[in-house]
Automatic annotation (TrEMBL):
Residues 74-185 form the Serine aminopeptidase S33 domain. The keyword Transmembrane applies. The chain crosses the membrane at residues 7-25. Pfam families: Hydrolase_4. This is Serine aminopeptidase S33 domain-containing protein. Keywords: Membrane, Transmembrane, Transmembrane helix.
Length: 280
């Protein structure tokens, strides 16, 4: 009996300790930034403008503006939780091949951007780059597509709930951080301990612009069912596409279908605003 009680005590203390550690160092389980900028758009044959953008709380963000001649829409991109913008250059090149200009930046604490990442900080970063794109660079809001992938989908949804743009694209989104914590650590009470929310499902209810949702059929990180719940909560007009592939490779695994989904949706946006978007 003594050994059983001792074993139960050890198990309980381990449970409490692991839960406490994850709660205390929560950000280490959410953000995986890299400071090493490995390439620039020039390495992919793209012209670009180097960006330094100040936030309302005094952080300087780094990014790139990659204009495409005669483009009608500009993609304002919010990347996922790992790496930095230099790891997404093939994606930016693919968007340019569709006739889109691209504005990409690193959140605070990523790449050459100052600071440390956090939920409120990433939302502040989004507001800062939106202002830079639409005011300093003079791109009209109705010509901006807000696009985010994974963690970036939550940031994109937050910004899209606050501004008017041509549309918003959410790729491999998760419903919320508490939902993700419960999914990946079901034996721990991390859902109830999480301080970070990134509640995409709630935020999308306040988005009133055309939505394109792209889910990955074999996504083991943000399962397609999460995209389903977000899509159900979203307002019309909305379009959902589910592509074969995993969380980090669906756009390569299904590159032709991925490009076609974007192409068709862009054409729809063009019809809505009465413009003739060039076919690529």
């Amino acid at each position: 009996m003594y050994l059983i009680k001792r074993l139960l005590f050890v198990v309980m203390m381990t449970f409490v300790g692991v839960s406490g550690y994850m709660a205390l160092f929560e950000d280490q389980f959410i953000y995986f930034p890299s400071r090493d900028v490995q390439a620039t758009p020039a390495d992919y044959g793209m012209t670009f403008e180097e960006l330094l953008v100040g936030t309302e709380d005094g952080i300087t963000l780094h990014g790139w503006y990659m204009p495409e001649p005669l483009s009608h829409f500009t993609v304002l991109h919010f990347h996922g939780n790992a790496g930095n913008i230099s790891h997404r250059l093939s994606l930016y090149k693919a968007w340019q091949s569709l006739g889109l200009s691209v504005y990409a930046f690193d959140y605070r604490g990523y790449g050459k951007s100052e600071g440390t990442p956090g939920e409120a900080g990433l939302y502040a970063d989004a507001r800062a780059v939106w202002s830079d794109l639409t005011i300093r660079l003079g791109v009209k809001p109705q010509h901006v597509i807000i696009a985010g992938r994974s963690l970036g989908a939550a940031v994109a949804a937050k910004l899209a709930s606050e501004v008017n743009a041509a549309g918003v694209v959410l790729e491999t989104p998760f419903s919320s951080i508490p939902d993700m914590a419960a999914l990946h650590y079901p034996w721990l009470p991390v859902r109830w301990l999480a301080r970070t929310n990134f509640d995409t499902e709630s935020m999308v209810r306040d988005v009133h612009m055309p939505l394109l949702m792209i889910a990955a059929r074999d996504d083991a990180i943000s399962p397609a069912q999460m995209a389903d719940s977000i899509f159900a909560a979203a307002n019309a007009p909305k379009t959902k596409v589910e592509l074969p592939g995993g969380h980090n490779d669906f756009d390569h695994y299904s590159s032709m279908a991925y490009g076609e989904a974007w192409r068709e949706w862009i054409a729809m946006l063009g019809r809505r605003d009465g413009s003739a978007v060039p076919e690529r």
